[in-house]
Specification:
Largest sheet: 6 strands, antiparallel
Strand content: 25-35%
Radius of gyration: 17 Å
Helix content: 40-55%
Number of strands: 6
Order of helices and strands: EEEEEEHHHHHHH
Mean pLDDT: 82
Number of helices: 7
Amino acid sequence: MNRMVHVDIQEIVKEENVTHDWRLLMVLEGQIKVAIFQTDYKLVKDNFIILNPNERFSISATVPALILAVTINATHLTTILPDTSKQRFWNLPMSSPNQTSNNLAACRRLLHRMMITSLSEDVDEATVAAIGLALMGHLRAHYLWHEESKSIFDHDQLVNTVITKLETAYAEDISLRLVADEMHVSYNYLSKKFKEQTHLNFNRYLNAIR
């Protein structure tokens, strides 16, 4: 897969595989059972699950189920967020101690936004990638399996703080200059670090998740 993010809608009865990338599966219609190692998860409509790289999984459904499958390329992502390769997420976000209805709803909104954007006649791959980065930012903020595995790099934490703020304030009148003032950091420094980490400028990123 050459793109950072690949989005597909699949009709699944049975699948068994080992994923080498991050995958998010959300049930659109029907219900499925996902087995990861020795744990089984039952998912119904709007439930989603996270598969980490190198996890063996199997999916089964009594009747064909429709799922949204989002694959985020591990090689591409780790060039943008180098420490991500060391991080693992809760397979079922509802199992996470940090899960709340607001966190789950925000993740579903990003997944739906990604689906709609990727299925449009004139697909903007940069926008799809930006939503993918916003999605990973959300997962890193709320669904890391080990809290201590979050980034220890100051500039990484800085940009992650901006991304987390955008997830809750994207509908408001917000600008990078205002965020920089609130965080008491240089606007030029924050702008540079944001673009280095996300490969997008602030406004392009903001428009992508709105």
